[in-house]
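Follow-up to my post from last week.
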Amino acid sequence: MRALPVAFAALASLAALASRAEAAPCCMSATAFGTGRLLIWEDAAVGLRTSLARGLGQWDGDGQWRPYDGYDELEWRSELWGMAALSRRASLFARAPFVATRRHAGALDGFDGGLADVSAGLRYEILSIGEVLELPAIAVTVSVTAPTGRPTWDAATPLGVDVTGRGAWALGAGLSLEHTAMPWFVRVDVGATVPLPAERPDLGVDQRFGPELVTDVAGGVELTEGLVTSLVARLTWASEIVLDGASVDGSGRLDVGLGAALSWRFAYHWTLQLAVDTGLFVDGLGDNQPGRLTGTLGLRYGVF
Amino acid sequence: MRAAALLGALALLLGACGAMGGAGRLTADDGALLTPAGEPVALADTWRAHDATVLVFWGSTCPCVKRYEGRVAALRERYHDGRVAFRYVASNADDDLAALTAARAAGREVLPLVKDPAGVLARTLGVISTPTAVLVDRAGAVRFRGWIDNERVPGDPDREPWLEEAVDTLLAGGSPRAATPVWGCTITRSLTEARRCTMPEPEPEPVPTCH
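User reply:
Got it. Predicted complex:
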């Protein structure tokens, strides 16, 4: 639990060094966190992001934070991703995550995993960074997620460690706004995901996860050429699950968190990415949601 | 109302000027430029007096421009016999005359630096990024529009000097490659410049592939 404040303090200290940075406004946030976007000179990029998340507790349906007691959860997620330019403004992306989970509860102990839900989409830059003086960069994304993971109803383990997906197709759309004032940037991402109905053979009903709204607000600074640090605040809200047309009371979700990231383009083609993310483990800042502390390590290769 | 006006100006900027291929020939009226001291200069006076005029679009904060400074200076030195004129053209809305003066004071004016007010020349030529290079012949015809070379990693052994080849071909009386891919920093425009955008003549050559 002390790791995150230390990480934030370290990043804040690094930010103080930013005055000498030779920042490139086009590229500061491109690889700063997440899969990001293509750098302006790249034809394509591929990467592998691996995260380890420890479950610390759970918010119940009333938003009360309940630390785990006698229960332990650790999730490993590795995501292969790639993106390719279609033009100066448009790019395609795809992600293939693999998940492995270990859970321990009382006398039960389980570990399993596999391919999770893969996704693909299109990103289009309406305005590039710095293109119009008075406006932020504007980009839109559309995506589709395929139910390639194993859903809850196909789980064969008592602790559900073999569950790797949601079992439903989902359509997504997002909007990204970014403003730079070298060497600083601020980025706001807003996205909506609409899961499509899927049949639950175990219950004999049609299930539809509630639409999700995801918002990230990030600020960062390029400390020196290729070294970018950033802080991210995120919020995910999902409405209630619907079974055969009827909403399931109390099944909506809320997840709020903070993260910090550091990316380092240590060679022309290669970028190393580090990130930490945490929920805010107090009552009311979560709902029907496990609370996790996550560390991520990523490696990115730009093709040009 | 303010939002509607902004959206209208943006639509004008993107619709009228956003995806043009660029003029194939400059006229005497194209290129009303300013020196860092604010004195007007006509670009036509330059291209009419030289077998080749190289315009390199410049941005004060663009790292690609900085990276190519040495190479651009070497090019100017190579063609020192007076047949080729070189100009740095500052088209960014946020690069004002003070920015040009500061660049001169910092020793970054490796080519004569001129301001392109409201980015009109960049739009006329279909230039969207710095340091894109444009080669104009003695008749004002645009003979090359693209990147200085194909080098995206410094020291690339497979470097092809696109601009240099184009200048050599033109000086030898040939037809240079017309266009190359371009990368670099997006030229900054201002919503207040939308009404000053001029449409170029129809362009028969393909639009440069952009990545």
